[in-house]
Amino acid sequence: MPATNLLAGKTAIITGGTTGIGRAIALAFLAQGCNVAVNHLDLPTDKPHLTSLLAEASALHAASPTTTGRLAHLPGDVRDPSTGLALVAFALSHFATTRLDICVSNAGICTFADLLDLSPDLFATTVRTNLDGAFYVVQAAARQMARDNVPLGGGSIIAVSSISALVGGGQQVHYTPTKAGVLSLMQSAAVALGRYGVRCNALLPGTVRTQLNEADLADEGKRRYMEGRIPLGRTGVPADVAGPAVFLACDELSGYVTGAQLLVDGGLFVNLQ
Length: 273
What we know:
Layout: E1 11-14, H1 20-31, E2 35-40, H2 47-63, E3 71-75, H3 81-94, E4 102-105, H4 120-148, E5 155-160, H5 176-193, E6 198-205, H6 214-217, H7 220-229, H8 238-249, H9 251-254, E7 261-264
Parallel strand pairs: 1-2, 1-4, 2-3, 4-5, 5-6, 6-7
């Protein structure tokens, strides 16, 4: 049986928290007793995801009201520097706390495109969302954790990078540099924030089924090819990334882990040869 209450009493923020990997991490944190504020764009297409997430969180709380965290949500675009600041302030106010314990920078986009035909707009949007957005929310969380957490300091910042930070992709020339940048951001932030007791780590998922790649994996031939390269023999699901996120968020489990990159890829990277 999985350990429970590993994050009891903690407060977390998660960007892009209503779908895919962010959603799975939010639910896992809630189950471990963490109060979670998720960010989302509040687009019409987001509404069903938010509604179902709220329902699932409510069901978790009803089943274990004394051990399950509470969920809140706030719309905002991570490309706007004010969004990260607003999310931090909202989490502290909503959960009536002076401490932000965990930040998960997860929001991102991935649109496959050929290098020769790649438009400046797609390139700029990808960089601004994946890299600029990560920087702004990490900076906002770091300011709270380093300067204003009471007692002073401490916290865990987790950025969702990708196996693409370590390998190339012919249809991802605009995407892979952003994920390499996110990994580098965590490495440098770990150095900058270590004196405050703030740990910064990157999760590098492999091929995980989310709304970002569902059309690509709908190609039966491509899916079989990918599964054939993965030693564990299957593509991942968002819940596969949630456990490692709990590990990195929990001081008792990973209190001496910072500046690290954790591959969550079923062994794909070591078989890319």
